[in-house]
Specification:
296 residues, alpha/beta, TIM Barrel, nine-stranded mixed sheet, 9 strands, 47% helix
Length: 296
């Protein structure tokens, strides 16, 4: 065989081997999962017994805590279901206090009694702005809601809000955050984004946190498809501001609480977190929630 042919063959083999190695590295990175403890910072119950299947899934996937919230006044028994779940699984459940109508004239009065009696770790989920399945449009600068925020600040309790963003809505929320700097708000589902709008809100408001709940592969907008990569813009923002984000699953419908679906959702969650740097994944998956909900 001529020397030139031999050299070409050697080069081809070397390139092929390099490709195999690179492919192995790619698969290993893509298949990496966050393996640390996980806190679901935003979920719900669909009925009184739903917590049992959820806790079994928690055990399978090393989910140490779940924050259970009300569904914005839709389910009249939310408070009872959440309280019962916390009594049954006190080491697993962080009980949120539902606030069905945050702009009611009596909301703050009722809340004052409940805060003193129940000492919840979080209020909500408070529905301020939701379009589509339900149409809710409440002003975050409403005086009654301002009293709710003042009470939350007094007791050191964060408020989880469902508030779908537009530029106008983001400006209104920013005014409310500026007027109540001692209150901490958690923007559920990242306000449906996009990342640039969320980044602006976070930059202007140190009393705002963001949860990434309900952004899984069954919903839009999603952070990633079931097997695809984490959206680059979201990844960049989370890694830029790692102390401002929480991970949540946002189960609420019965079909989402079925064991096979819970396994898929938690597997997806760990895979997505695994695309972040280990330090950031630990913050978003666990440590930020520990600090926010005072779990230590």
């Amino acid at each position: 065989m001529p020397a030139s042919s031999s050299s070409a063959r050697t080069l081809a083999i070397a390139l092929a081997l390099a490709g195999l190695v690179a492919g192995s590295v790619t698969v290993a990175v893509a298949g990496a999962e966050y393996a640390g403890p996980l806190i679901d910072a935003h979920s719900h119950l669909s009925n009184a017994g739903a917590i049992d299947a959820y806790v079994e899934a928690m055990k399978r996937h090393n989910v140490t805590r779940v924050v259970l919230l009300g569904v914005g006044g839709v389910q009249k028994d939310d408070a009872e279901w959440i309280a019962a779940a916390a009594r049954k699984y006190p080491d697993r459940v962080i009980a949120g206090l539902p606030v069905p109508d945050p702009t009611s004239d009596v909301a703050a009065q009722r809340l004052a009694d409940d805060l003193a009696r129940r000492r919840p770790r979080v209020l909500g989920e408070v529905h301020l702005r939701q379009l589509g399945r339900r149409n809710i449009e409440r002003d975050p600068n409403d005086a009654a809601f301002g009293k709710v925020l003042d009470l939350a600040a007094q007791y050191g309790v964060p408020v989880a809000v469902h508030y779908e963003l537009t530029d106008t809505a983001a400006a209104a929320l920013s005014r409310a955050l500026a007027a109540h700097r001692k209150a901490t708000l958690v923007l559920a589902h990242a306000g449906e984004g996009p990342p640039a709008r969320v980044e602006g809100l976070l930059a202007r408001n140190p009393n705002l946190m963001v949860d990434l709940s309900g952004m899984h592969f069954l919903r839009k907008p999603s952070l990633a498809s079931e097997n695809g990569p984490l959206d680059p813009a979201w990844k960049a923002l989370i890694e830029k501001m790692p102390d401002r984000f929480l991970m949540g699953v946002d189960v609420w419908a019965p079909r989402l609480l079925e064991p096979a679906m819970l396994d898929r959702l938690f597997t997806w969650t760990r895979r997505v977190l695994g695309e972040l740097t280990p330090e950031v994944a630990a913050r978003v998956g666990h440590r930020n929630a520990v600090a926010l909900f005072r779990l230590e």
